[in-house]
Amino acid sequence: MELVLTDDQEFFRDTTRKFLGSECPIPKVRELRDNEAGFEADYWRQGAELGWVSLLVPEELGGGSVSGNGPSDLALVAHAFGFHVAPGPLIPCNVVASTLARSGSEEQQSGLLQDLISGAQVATWALTELPPHDALGDDVTVRAEADGDGYVLSGVKSPVEAGAEADQLLVTATTDAGIGQFLVPRDADGVTVTPLRSVDLVRRYARIEFDGVRVPASAVVGTPGQVADDLEHQLQIAAVVQSAEMVGAADAGFDITLDWAFSRYSFGRPLASFQEIKHRFADMKMWLEASHGLADSAARHVSRADADAAIAVSAAKAYAGQYLAELLQDCVQLHGGIGVTYEHDIHLYLRRITVDRLTYGTPADHHRRIGELRIAQAA
Amino acid sequence: MTTTTTSTSVESVEEFRLRAREWLKENFPRSENVHLPLRAAVSDEAELAAIQRQRDLQRLLFDGGFAGVCVPTEYGGLGLTPDHQRALNEESAGYEIPFLIQVPTFVPCMAVLLEFGTEEQKLEYIPPMLKGEAIWMQFLSEPSGGSDVAAALTTAVRDGDEWIVNGSKVWTTGAWFSDYGLCLLRTNWDVPKHRGLSVFIIPIHQEGIELHRIEMINGSKEFCQEFMTDVRVPDSDRVGEVDQGWTVGTRWMFHEKNAMGGGSPFVTGTLHSGVQESHDPYVDLVRATGRADDPHAQELVGEAHMLGLARSALSARISTGMRTGQMPDNSAAIARLISAVAFQRQNTISLDLAGANAAATLPGDPWAEKGFSFLERQSSGIGGGTTEMARNNISEKVLKMPREMTHDKNMPFRDVPKGPPGN
């Protein structure tokens, strides 16, 4: 998280933290394990009132950022989400809201977009498909066949975050003109939603099958064959949120483990006095601070929408995914036996980092993306 | 603070930036195909020519009014702020900024003089540094120890207005072509080790100093050892108080770590590569080996680039943290650690991208240096303070964990064990 914030950003961050601290303390998160949706509708509406889904939407469309840099503001919320391992469809709602604000029709902007901002509806992005297809959407096999004025969608998307809870699905599909994006109501005919067993306690995913699902022309977002910029932006927003969220979760896991190292005694001395353990903490601190720096830098690049944004985002997502997952594994290790139990809280943070590491591109996927971009830049 | 501002109207950072941009464009060479010093397999003549070019480029910067941005004007600098320095660093990307002279001449040596030197010392020694006339070395490590730097054995004994120095310093990279050594010496054997040290300025090329060059793993002979026999140093060249050398030494180590981590306000350009940003060495390598379309090679290129970004982002964050008082000065050790860790992984990536043909090469091969550079990889985790010491610093000084136990505390240095018993 940025070390220097504006007064407004500090106030916004503190409000979000306070809300999450009171609405979803760790016992509540544990309780939500048995909640089908993983979050309560009221909670999400209250969060939306705090601005969680308005930051990437311009004021004239009913949104508004805190500092003028929406992605950096959103990263503050994401950090708090990680720190509290909070529930709620923060990533997919912001991705869809951002694209509707950029490329949505007037009807989509006055309808669904407003409901997303207010929290009245939830939407998600259906991009990733089953193996062997990649997670970054380079080989989309879900088809959208033109049919009169509308389209007919077929194929499978998985995993789709909040796929069973979302009212609307933004489906990335292949058309004869190239890639296109379509809004599909989750309860439309031909849509089969299968909830999945999630690694995270409260973040739900689903496998969604589209079997000849018919949508009208008004469901098209942007122009099929011309959505490359939207897709790139969606990926960047998802990765900015994930990077900041992983940092937040790692901050919490690190603090807990640091306390443990000072209070746990073995051989008559605190764990924190053993050089082997001190050096492990030094590495963890390095990974943590580097992840902070990269995540902040990624959010700033996306805020400015500059030419280096794609690389900055992939670097943050890949580094945090790789090294913060290791950090949390080390936190588990340093706790010993209690660390691998459900009773201890440390796994909550490992869970969140694991799903963030995996979805929207693994570290290897993002390394490759940076490599491709660097090689193309030098051409 | 080591910066002072004498003029009342300071040039704004943006004005300075634009002026630097224009001036560099008009006057400074770009960094394509530069012959860098400190490489293996280069003749001494070629090496000296490369060093002379570094000195000339520094003089060019000085004459153009862009040397010593944060150094007070009375010592030949510009008396501006770290923000101005950062602007110059950003503008200097892609130019042949003389990197050799930045470390250790400006940091830590000049930084130490600015903090602890007498007015006379600063007036005498700093302007030649900024003009590229004087290259300085750190005389710290000794054959008996490196990380335990306060256990220096090389001794200065007072003789009237002079000191007489005997002993040996080692691992000075490039001392053979350098001019001065900032030297940590023992001045008292009868007190605990930290309380018996003093710091001196010593010209390297003088009678009484015998300089040997040491071959490194990669074939270069930049490492040096200096044998000092009855070297006479005037007391006016002592930096800081007698026996208070560790007060100087602590700040000395801070400046060194800060430079290694990329956070020093006295460094122009970036230290991580002499040739900056104008081309990507990993991309060059996959092109040269015909693997630009290979997904695995692309992954490695991306990982290497990511690590570079991680190093810069961390360094910027630590600088901000220290500047705003949110992080202790010892946080510079975090940036120092990643500078080695990231570099070492990048170095291994280069090796693997080069492949089998890096094992044995002809001079013109694009991958000719990669195998030899890999052999020398750990230098990055040793020079400038080892990564082990950095990890101690981070855990003890930043995270406040208990300090390592030592066996020399409160013991007169004379009595401290210096080898196995019976020797």
General description of the model:
The complex is a heterodimer of chains A (379) and B (423). By secondary structure, chain A is of the alpha+beta class. Chain A is 51% helix and 16% strand. Chain A has twelve helices and ten strands. Chain A has a four-stranded mixed sheet with strand order 1-4-5-8, covered by helices on one side. In chain A, strands 2-3-7-6 form a four-stranded antiparallel sheet, with no helix packed on it. In chain A, strands 9-10 form a two-stranded antiparallel ribbon. In chain A, a hairpin with a 2-residue loop joins strand 9 (265-266) and strand 10. The radius of gyration of chain A is 21 Å and the shape is globular. By secondary structure, chain B is an alpha+beta fold. Chain B contains twelve helices and eight strands. In chain B, the strands form two sheets. In chain B, strands 1-4-5-8 form a four-stranded mixed sheet, covered by helices on one side. A four-stranded antiparallel sheet of chain B has the order 2-3-7-6, with no helix packed on it. In chain B, helix 7 (281-288) packs parallel to helix 9. Chain B is globular. Classes of the chains: A alpha+beta (379), B alpha+beta (423). At the A-B interface, helix 8, strand 10, helix 9, helix 10 and helix 12 of A face helix 7, helix 8, helix 9 and helix 12 of B.
